[in-house]
Amino acid sequence: MNFKLLFTEEAASNLEKLENEPNKKKRLKAVRKSLGYLENNPKHPSLNTHEYNSLSRQFGIKIFEAYTEHKTPQAYRIFWHYGPDKSEITIIAITPHP
After folding, report:
1. Euclidean distance between CA atoms 17 and 13, whole angstroms
2. Which are the contacts of 96, defined by CB distance < 8 A and separation ≥ 6?
3. In what order do the strands lie in the sheet with 64-67?
4. What is the pLDDT of residues 24-46, one digit of tens each?
5. Is 61 within 8 Å of 81 (Cβ atoms)?
6. Is there a contact between 74 and 50 (Cβ–Cβ < 8 Å)?
7. pLDDT, tens digit, for every residue of 42-85?
8. What secondary structure does DSSP assign to 29-73, as a single string?
9. Cα–Cα distance between 97 and 64 in angstroms, integer?
């Protein structure tokens, strides 16, 4: 099943900021690849998708975290949830992992 990706204002801003940082081309490539995986299979093994419990409790909806890279300092994470419609995923934020 293919999903349509929707971006919150924050997530769109996060992605735009990353696109405009010339020294982060490798990170941008990894984020785009991960977004592609999310569209096709949110449970793709390389995403290491898992529920982010503290955000799920805070927002009252299951929020997931997906990795863009593994064992890499400052790798980005994508926070998302299913919906609002059945075949949609909403990207909440795209942030570097400390």
Report:
1. 6
2. 27, 74, 75, 76, 77
3. 4-7, 88-96, 76-82, 64-67, 50-51
4. 888 999 999 999 999 999 999 99
5. yes
6. no
7. 999 999 999 999 999 998 999 999 999 877 777 899 999 999 99
8. HHHHHHHHHHHH-TT-GGGT-EE-HHHHHHHTS--EEEESSSS-T
9. 15
Record the tokens describing residue 22, joined without a space.
Answer: 């010339």
**Token pair of 95 as six digits:** 């942030």
Q: Which residue matches tokens 């449970």?
A: 43
Q: Are 5 and 87 in contact (CB under 8 A)?
A: no
As given in the structure block, the two tokens for residue 27 are: 């990170």
